[in-house]
Amino acid sequence: MDKFEKVAGERTTGKLKERVRKHVDDAMRRSQLVADADLDTFSANVGGRKFTAVVPKGVKLKSAVVVTEPGVDEVGLGAEFEVPTDSVTPSAAGHSAGSGLPRVAGACRTLWFDNPTSGANDDQVYDCYEKFKKSNSEYIYNRYSKMTVGQTEAAIRREVQEFTIRFREAKGYSRITGGPYNYGPLPSSLECNNAKFSYGGLEIPLVGCGGIQNLAGGSYYQTGTKYLGHETSQKYIDSYARYVSNGSTPVWSDYVWVTMSSCGWIPFTPCVNGLNKWEETYTDGLWYR
Predict the structure, then answer these.
(1) Helix (H) or strand (E) holding 28
(2) Within 10 Å of residue 258's Cβ, how many Cβ atoms?
(3) Domain of life of the organism in this record (predicted)?
């Protein structure tokens, strides 16, 4: 963590200050009350690209990574956060907060990776989490994430080819005893058709079920959602699951991964690159460390 510069939100200056204000503005437009003093900013040069994260105080940036492939104008961007166990009187989070059960934590963070084709218009991820308590041992965790492509001159087409969010029990904690259950969204499911997840009195609005895969399974009770496609503007994805704990509040680790691509702009023609082997190049080294 020594390579990341951490600055409290109220003490940022210059471009970092602009990004704090942008995060606050985005959060307040979604009815989440937040001030500069509630935020921390992490900044670093990762893999030759500038990375910035504006996060609620208490959220820990565990790691960040950039993966490139020689000779290919393409890059993968990843970050992982440890989410605090609780918060005081949490405000609404996300595009439209879940309702019907007590929310014990909820907040949003914004990530920026500099755009190599236009430093003034960086790639951005606005990522939110919500933690709901159904009983002393049952919790529902929700993620909502929006990727915005940093555009550039008309001659270059830039795409999101992969956008993945995941969550699992944070390493070093042993509080979850079962799950994920009732996870999703699942492509072509009733939840996707109705644009909402409902369970035990809780309702969470959903967006972005097109082109997704569910990632439930594996170590540390993980789940998540992966989008594969050719999105040139913005992409929204959701992920949620129910868990059983040992009676203590679970601590989750949140993960974001984006694969970007650039190519010449030809109308209605997506970027194609035969060397794009991101499943091989990036085997979740950030996640399984």
Answers:
(1) helix 14-29
(2) 25
(3) Bacteria
Burial 153-192, CB ≥16 within 10 A → b, else e: eeeebbbbbbbbbbbbbbeebebbeebbebbbbeeeeebb
Quickly tell me which residue has 């990004």 as its tokens.
19
| Alpha-carbon gap, residue 260 to 253, rounded angstroms | 23
Question: Comparing C-alpha atoms, which of 242, 239, 244, 241 is closest to residue 255?
Answer: 239
39: nearest Cα among 52, 56, 25: 56
Residue 1 clears pLDDT 50, i.e. is over it: no
Give SS3 for 49. Answer: strand
pLDDT score at 121: 75
Whether residue 180 has a cis bond before it, omega within 30° of 0: yes
The arithmetic mean of pLDDT across residues 231-249, rounded, is 93
Q: Measured in whole angstroms, how far is the alpha carbon of residue 208 from the centre of its chain?
A: 14
CB 237 within 8 A of CB 186: no
- pLDDT tier, 147 (very low <50, low <70, confident <90, very high otherwise): very high
Domain locations along the chain: 47-281
- Distance CA(68)–CA(72), nearest Å, equals 8
- pLDDT tens digits, one per residue of 43-101: 888 777 788 889 888 888 888 877 776 655 556 777 888 877 655 444 545 445 667 78
The CB-based long-range contact list for 55-64 (8 Å cut-off, 24+ gap) reads: 55/81, 55/109, 56/84, 56/87, 56/107, 56/108, 56/109, 57/8, 57/9, 58/84, 58/87, 59/83, 59/84, 59/107, 59/109, 61/1, 61/4, 62/253, 63/286, 63/289, 64/4, 64/286
**Whole-angstrom distance, CA of residue 26 vs CA of residue 9:** 15
Going by C-alpha positions, the residue among 127, 123, 108, 117 that lies closest to residue 38 is 108
